[in-house]
Structure formats: structure tokens, C-alpha cells
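FW: tagging you since you asked about this chain on Friday. Here's the raw sequence from the shared folder, copied in full. Didn't touch anything.
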Amino acid sequence: MNDFGRVAVLLGGTSAEREVSLNSGSRVLAALLGQGIDAHAFDPAEQPLDALKGYDRAFVALHGRHGEDGTIQGALELMHIPYTGSGVMASALGMDKFRTKLLWQAAGLPVPDYALLTADSDFADVEEELGLPIFVKPAHEGSSIGISKVKERETLHLAYAEAAKYDPLVIAEKGVMGGEYTVGIIGCGADMMALPIIKIEPATEWYDYEAKYNRDDTRYMCPCGLSEDKEMEIRRGALEAFRIIGGRGWGRVDFLMDEEGNHYFLEVNTAPGMTDHSLVPMAARVAGMEYPALVRRVLELAAND
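HL: got it, structure written out here
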């Protein structure tokens, strides 16, 4: 038997990523039950949080707001329930793409050029400053929700209006078009390790929601095709990026490459997806850790501090 006690798998929730979370959580639940762990689905959108009293651990498979941004983590800490993934501060920072960039820039890590947008921005000036293409995104959403690719001049304002439906804080980011990659991370403290890098090649124009979750023609390459030296350099940088925000347990750091072979860290995910299209399970498998073992390892790393 295990010593995990009664485990709540938090899934669903109220964010725009609810459907993805239900998918992730159901797979996590099945993997835990398959190992004889006393696990139960718990949807905060359908049950009051005080119903978590009596659980010994929580596996956070929530994505987006109120699940990945420090709020549920704070509630679990108040109830003294150990939970998977990063703590309150790191979760909040990781969900805020703007402040993550500020921290990484201050630490000397490379990030794409960007600008904050408001309804009063000089959109033509931003287009001139960043050049095309530009990606416009809500600062506090995941799963590519609300993101647009601006390819034509005098259309940036339309992309801003779409992103602003989801978040008052909107980022315009210079398109870095040499390839999209991700680094999975697992562990705590000195035992934290970066998993093999995955290169993502969508059949769509960019890695949007459809390519992430609904299509089967997105290509995931692991080995990723980078030289061994470059891969190790980026994996070390991804660990630093994760540590800078205070990440623990597990996560994912996304980065882009330009045509000259320079890399730029894009964002961090402190509650990565666990669906059949998700990237951390894919990288873990290449590293020799199958899905049930990954789920168990993440649960073992649950903390409450």
C-alpha cells in the first residue's frame, strides 16, 4: 500500500481552461486509482472548498485562473493540505506572463521583445517598434486562449480587443519564428531536473488551442534536433528560469528559437497539462518514466509551505 492517505484530484474549476483541466484530471485520477491510491475527483466549481477537509493530499490538475494562479494553493495551505506543484507566490508569478518576463529580464535571461497594450496605445508605433509578426496575448491566460498572430499592419488593435476580452493586461510580443520548444521540469531543490527538450511543429500556422488539444497532426520531436551542447545550455537556463519564480515539484518552461539559433524564454507553466496531447508526460516517457510513475512522483513531491 501507499502512505498518501486520501487524495483529492482537483479538476475542472471555473477558468477558461475548464475542459482541458477535466481531461487532465480524469487521466491523473485513473493513474492514481490504477496504483491502488485512494484518490477522488474534486471539482471546485461543483463542491465547496471546505469539503476538502479530511483529505490528506491534493493533486492540482486545475489550469488557469483560480487553479494555477495561487488562489487554490493559498486555500490548501490554510487547510494544511499538502498539494502538488508550486506554492502561492510561484503560482501567481507563473500565471502572470508580464511579471515573469520582468523577473527573467532582471536575472539576465533572454526573452522576446514585448510591449504592454492598453486601449490608448499607439498601435502603429508598437507595430513599428516590434515588427511583424506580433503575437498578442492576455497576460493571465493559458492554453493559447485569447492569443492572436498579427501579420498585417494596422490590425494590432483588433488583436488587442480580442485579448482584452479575457484580461485587462495585454502583451504584444515580437514573433520569434525559428521554432517552438518546451522543457519539462520535475523535482525540488537540488534534485530538480530538466527533462529532454521537445520541439513542437504544428500543422497550423502556430501552436494554437486547436493544435494543442484537438488535432492529431501536430508533430512533437524528442530528441528535438538541437546540438547536445545547446540542449544542455537551454535545460540549465530553464531550471534557472523555474527557480527564479520560486517553482517547485514540477512545471514546464516554454522557449522559442530565432533563425540565427538564439533562444528566448517565453513563459512558465506551474500546473502542466496531463492530457493525451500534453508535453511533460511525453518528455518524461523519453526519459524513461511512464505516465503512472510520473503521476506518482508528482504526488510524492506534494508540499505545504
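FW: Residues 114-174 form a domain with the Dna Ligase; domain 1 fold (CATH 3.30.1490.20).
HL: agreed, and The radius of gyration is 19 Å.
FW: great, closing this out.
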